[in-house]
Amino acid sequence: MTRCCILAFVACALLVTGCGTSPAQTSCTITANVTPVNATADHNATPPGNQMQFTLNTDVQGTCPAAADVAGTWSTSDPANTSVNQQGLATCLGATTKPATISNSGMVRHVKAFAPATLTCR
């Protein structure tokens, strides 16, 4: 085979492999939040006035990984003035000088962590 024929063969091979249909673009959008995003309760009130129920809010759209969600644990950044049980019920124990961050360590589809919320105790 001559050099010219080899170059022509390579050029044809590149054209053939480049002319197929490309795979469809996939997208994955995951929203994961602790709600309500901001809450206030009165530490001097009797239950339920001194409490706030936090929940996990998720939205999965598109072609996302087929991984299971991970159940997390609830926590507070201010355990001296707030507590939170494993059902997401937070209780004001004292007045907070700045809002306490209420978090859940769970993951949605092993991809997206939950955005935390805040609790102000007055």
Describe this structure in words.
By secondary structure, the chain is mostly beta strands. It has a single domain (27-121), classed as Sandwich (Immunoglobulin-like). The chain has one helix and eleven strands; from the N terminus they run H-E-E-E-E-E-E-E-E-E-E-E. It is elongated and about 50 Å long. The chain starts with a helix and ends with a strand.
How would you describe this structure in keywords?
single chain, 122 residues, mainly beta, Immunoglobulin-like, 4-stranded mixed sheet, 11 strands, disordered N terminus
Number of domains: 1
> In CATH terms, what is the architecture?
Sandwich
Mean pLDDT over all positions: 84
N-end to C-end Cα span: 88 Å
Low-confidence stretches: 3-23
Structure classification: mainly beta
Spatial order of strands in the largest sheet = 2-11-8-5
**Beta fraction of the residues?**
35-45%
Secondary structure tally: strands: 11
The description of the largest β-sheet is:
4 strands, mixed
The gist of it:
By secondary structure, the protein is mainly beta.
Question: How do the helices and strands line up, and which of them pair or pack?
Answer:
Elements: H1 3-18, E1 28-35, E2 38-41, E3 51-53, E4 55-62, E5 74-76, E6 82-84, E7 89-92, E8 100-104, E9 107-108, E10 112-113, E11 117-121
Parallel strand pairs: 2-11
Antiparallel strand pairs: 1-4, 3-7, 5-8, 6-7, 8-11, 9-10
